[in-house]
Design a protein that fits this description.
Elements lengths: L1 E5 L4 H12 L3 E6 L10 E4 L15 E4 L11 H13 L5 E5 L26 H15 L5 E6 L3 E3 L8 E4 L12 E3 H14 L5 E7 L1
Parallel strand pairs: 1-2, 1-4, 2-3, 4-5, 5-6, 6-10, 7-9
Antiparallel strand pairs: 8-10
Protein name: NAD(P)-binding domain-containing protein
InterPro entries: NAD(P)-bd_dom (IPR016040), NAD(P)-bd_dom_sf (IPR036291), Polyketide_Oxido-like (IPR051606)
GO molecular function, one term: oxidoreductase activity, acting on the CH-NH group of donors, NAD or NADP as acceptor
Length: about 210
């Protein structure tokens, strides 16, 4: 497949790009910085919000790996994902979002989330809320083939690629060791599994390490 990855120089994005290339896909990396820190030979310097419909023509999948922790830019989680959705509306190109774990539900009624729990770190609330807002905006769209993939609560940047991970639905799920963790490397592999499967259209799912 032809896969475009935006915000390509981010740490998760780089793992996704490496995994996609390893699996033989044709990958283009879009980044706003001049340096290409990815394994993609096709690197396009362009900010997400400057992308046009023409930039994304011909791709089977667009992976949105945008993320920010700066308080003044939290709105960009929604702005960027909605901009990409606008560019891809009424096309067959799929939009895969690198999501967050804070919005995973902790009860069957789906009224409580990880981020609304008493033990959730206060400093993480702004980004969790911003990513939840972006997800809620996506849920209102039936004109885009979007999929939102939430990682486990402990998202480990330098963890190994174990290949041992399990998909779950929108409810926060612990593994057999009563833990919620996944490495960036395993998450990237899971993202490619979702891309290659063609499943979970207009759904949010999650993944955790066994």
């Amino acid at each position: 497949m032809k896969i475009a990855v935006v915000a390509a120089n981010g740490r998760v994005a780089r793992k996704v790009i490496t995994e996609a290339i390893k699996r033989g896909h044709d990958v283009a990396a879009f980044g706003r910085h001049e340096e290409n820190n990815t394994d993609a030979s096709n690197y396009i310097i362009k900010d997400i919000l400057d992308l046009t419909k023409e930039d994304l023509v011909g791709y089977d999948v667009v992976v949105d790996a945008f993320g920010t922790w700066a308080s003044e830019t939290m709105h960009l989680h929604t702005d960027t994902s909605q901009h990409l959705a606008d560019l891809l509306e009424n096309t067959n190109t799929r939009l895969l979002i690198v999501g967050g774990a804070g919005s995973l539900y902790t009860n069957k009624e789906h009224t409580e989330t990880v981020s609304s729990g008493p033990d959730f770190p206060h400093d993480w609330l702004p980004v969790a809320n911003a990513m939840a807002d972006a997800l809620n905006k996506l849920r209102k769209r039936n004109d885009v083939h979007w999929t939102y993939l939430s990682p486990a609560a402990n998202f480990v940047a330098d963890g190994e690629a174990s290949g041992k991970y399990t998909f779950a639905n929108e409810e926060f799920t612990l593994n057999r060791n009563n833990e919620s963790s996944i490495s960036y490397a395993d998450y990237a592999s899971a993202m490619l599994d979702v891309i290659e499967s063609g499943k979970h259209d207009q759904e949010r799912i999650s993944v955790f390490q066994d």
